[in-house]
Amino acid sequence: MEQCSWPQGNALMQTYHDEEWCRPNYDDRYIFEMLILEGAQAGLSWSIVLAKREAYQAAFNNFDIEYCAGLSDEDLESIRENGNVIKHFAKLQSVPTNAQAVLKIQKEFNSFSDFLWRFVEYEPVINSWETDAQIPPQSPLSVQISKDLKKRSFKFVGPVTTYSFLQAIGMVDDHIRSCKFHTLNR
C-alpha cells in the first residue's frame, strides 16, 4: 500500500504523519499547540518546527492557554534568547495574542474545539487524493476560517497556514487514498 510521501524518511515527520496528522482532535490545548506550531512554520519547513516542538512545549508550559495568554514581551524575549525556538519575534508575540483570542472564544463557544468544528458540522472533510501533489495549499474552508480568526485578532493564520492547521487537528483528512492512515483505510 502506497503511503503519503511528504515525511521523506524523516523519523519525526513519519511519526507525526502516522500518529497525529489528519486525526480528529477536540482537545483545546492540543488544538492551540497546533495553531502556534503551524504559525511558527510560516516560511519554513515542518521538519524544522517538529525538531523544535519539545523546546516549544517547555517554553510555553506545554501550551497551557492561560499561561500563554499572560506572557509579556520580556518573557518572550527570554524565550527567544534561551529557548530552542524559532527566533522570529512576531511569531513569538502571536503566542499570547492567540492565547487571549482563544480564551475569548472559549467564553463565547464553550471551547475552541466547538468553535472550529462547527465549521464542518463536527465531521471531518475526508479527501481522496491519489498523490501528494494533488493536495491544495488552501481551500474555501481554510479561507473562511482564516477570515474569522483574523477578525478575532489571531495572528499567523493566513489561508495556507490555516489549511495546514486544519490537517493538523484532523478537520481535514488529506492522506492520499492509498495511505494506510487515510480515514477510510483505518
Automatic annotation (TrEMBL):
Keywords: Metal-binding, Zinc
Pfam families per UniProt: Adenine_glyco
List of residues binding Zn(2+): C4, H17, H175, C179
One example of a Gene Ontology biological process annotation: base-excision repair
Keyword ATP-binding: no
Protein name: DNA-3-methyladenine glycosylase I
Annotated organism of origin: Salinicoccus cyprini
Domain of life: Bacteria
One Gene Ontology MF term: metal ion binding
Gene3D superfamilies cross-referenced by the UniProt entry: Hypothetical protein, domain 2
Keyword RNA-binding (UniProt): no
